[in-house]
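Quick check before the chapter quiz. The format below is the same one you will see on the exam, so make sure you can read both the input and the output lines.
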Amino acid sequence: MSAVNIAVRAFRKLEPEDIKLLQAMEEQMKNYEYAPKDAIQKQSEFAFSEIEYRLPLLIKNGLVQGWRGKYVGYGLTTAGHDALAINALVKADVIEAFGKPLGVGKESDVYNALAPDEKQVALKFHRIGRTSFKKTKLKRNYTVTYSYTPDWHHQSRISAKKEYLALKLLYPKGVAVPEPIKQTRHVLVMSMIDGAELYHYPELPNAQAVYDEILSNVKIAYQDADMIHGDLSPYNIILQPDMHILIIDWPQAVSTKHPNAKELIERDLRNVLTFFQRKYGLKNRLEDAVTYVTTNTKTNLTAQD
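Here is the expected output.
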């Protein structure tokens, strides 16, 4: 059972006191990997008897884990963090019912949910801890500004916020991205994602048109929003049922003023073009794609014989 499923199942049983205790532990985990009971007591302002009653239940429900070393401490599990995020979204009237998984990736779990207006939305739980810190630091620019090593959950919070802010900038510019709705902790709420990743399609009725649409959106992001995806690939380009694309996974986006902007935009475009060349036989050239995206010229994207 996934952490999200554990959190949803446990959330239905939680009382307000349980939420307050989880929040106290979350706050103390800024200071401790595993918070001692006296620190939890001071933060929650509960009597020790109340804490001793509730902790075993939270452990049993998979939201808290204990640790015994030089002292006895307690910390939130991934499901515990998820439960607090779900609680925040419910309290804010962003969601009222939970749905099924839409996809599980290396660094996120995506689920659908029902909003109070009965519209379906997508919830992305960022999971930066699924990669090693060394690899994360190399790939993700949001860790390098910190003088300390953020814990995995803190990195996930940063990732969710960075993606939310990117979508808030891109969506009004007309870039084909999900509409951002809300971000809390390590969870991003956005409009429903319908379709499948591009690599799932062995054939396309008009591969050139799909390729052109991808580059058109990369161009808008680059020129109107001053933004580069930074990790674009067939794994984060969704082809929707109407055969139009949606570009997802923006937490690693960088400014066009980034020192490595030229290399990053070329890498993004090379990833896309190489895929279309190998899988669909397109004969477009990388230099034409780069020129089209980064300048105001009217470069013809269709390959020339």
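If your answer matched, good. Residues 101 and 305 are 45 Å apart (CA to CA).
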